Amino acid sequence: MELVCPAGNFPSLKAAVDNGANAVYIGFRDETNARHFAGLNFNDRRAYKALDYARKKGVRLFVAVNTYAQARNWQRWEKAVDLCSDLGVDALIAADMGVLSYAARRYPSLNLHLSVQGSATNPGSLQFYHNQFGITRAVLPRVLSLKQVEKLVARSPVELEVFAFGSLCIMAEGRCLLSSYVTGESPNTSGACSPASAVRWQETPQGMETRLGGKLIDRFHQDEQAGYPTLCKGRFRVENRVGHALEEPTSLNTLDLIPQLAQMGISAVKIEGRQRSPAYVAEVTRVWRQALDSYQKSPASYRPKPNWEQSLEKLSEGSQTTLGAYSRPWQ
């Protein structure tokens, strides 16, 4: 299985490449990608530099143009696709049917992957994107059980990629509008569920308060590490009890599932985290490279090593991990 790793900047790209990624995915510095955060992503010059570094090390470069284009500035998405073609990237990752259509018509030889934002969860959907736009791979949303993934692999007309490690969200990718209720923006259209302009941090006698769009979404005591300021992972008072009303911060970790994913025919495993630091990318990539190599060397005796699990646990949200929707023992 191919190991696909994230890079929000050039140092992260180097970290991923140097620690064993088979492919690295990046985004451009505007709202055309779903991780549009200040200080992150690549302009034209940096993208060429990233491509050059990756190619010299034999690593593939993917570019995510995976938000939903808006009528007022459609040309921005066209320009992003044009740049992908000029760069000669190994794959353009997209979700918007208009973007996919433009890319397929204008650049027939451009390799297209369906983004997780496309939220394709059934064979009919995968067949549609394959027939209409010629996609060669789809990234599956993190809402399917392992049995559902297996059934989908058996009937899919294209390669399938699944998330292997990284922060979890309770929302189905590409269908979350939660943050737009308090910020006016969503990851689907502007690329960030917590745009910097909507986030406020304030020290108070009760602790560090986090506000999103003016709404109090969490309060941290002095000995607590402040979490990522998203509405779905905030803490709220419900029936006189304060807690994570929607979702407790946690990370997906599928080291245990490598044998099943490989045997069912999954083509690639993806690491989440283009907003993470180069050190995070380096460590997660290193662990997953070792795990995949260990499985390939001796599939029958593969077991996740305790030190791999400990490393990933330290990097997980809330210092805890889960198999997420993959594991549904009650079914």
Describe the structure.
Helix content is 32%, strand content 21%. Helix 1 (10-18) packs parallel to helix 2 (44-56). The relative contact order is 0.15. With 331 residues, it is of the alpha/beta class. The strands form 3 sheets. An 8-stranded parallel barrel has the order 1-2-3-4-5-6-7-14, surrounded by 6 helices. The protein has helices at 10-18, 44-56, 74-87, 97-106, 123-133, 146-155, 180-183, 258-264, 278-297, 306-314; strands spanning 2-6, 23-27, 60-65, 91-94, 112-114, 137-139, 159-167, 199-204, 207-212, 215-220, 236-238, 241-243, 251-253, 268-271, 321-322. The two termini are 27 Å apart.
Query: Strands of the largest sheet, in order across it?
Result: 1-2-3-4-5-6-7-14
**Can you count the helices?**
10
- Low-confidence segments, given as residue ranges, are none
How can the largest sheet be summarized? 8 strands, parallel, barrel
How confident is the prediction overall: mean pLDDT? Answer: 92
- Please state the CA-atom Rg, rounded to the nearest Å: 20 Å
Produce the secondary structure layout.
Blueprint: E1 2-6, H1 10-18, E2 23-27, H2 44-56, E3 60-65, H3 74-87, E4 91-94, H4 97-106, E5 112-114, H5 123-133, E6 137-139, H6 146-155, E7 159-167, H7 180-183, E8 199-204, E9 207-212, E10 215-220, E11 236-238, E12 241-243, E13 251-253, H8 258-264, E14 268-271, H9 278-297, H10 306-314, E15 321-322
Parallel strand pairs: 1-2, 1-14, 2-3, 3-4, 4-5, 5-6, 6-7, 7-14, 13-15
Antiparallel strand pairs: 7-13, 8-9, 9-10, 11-12
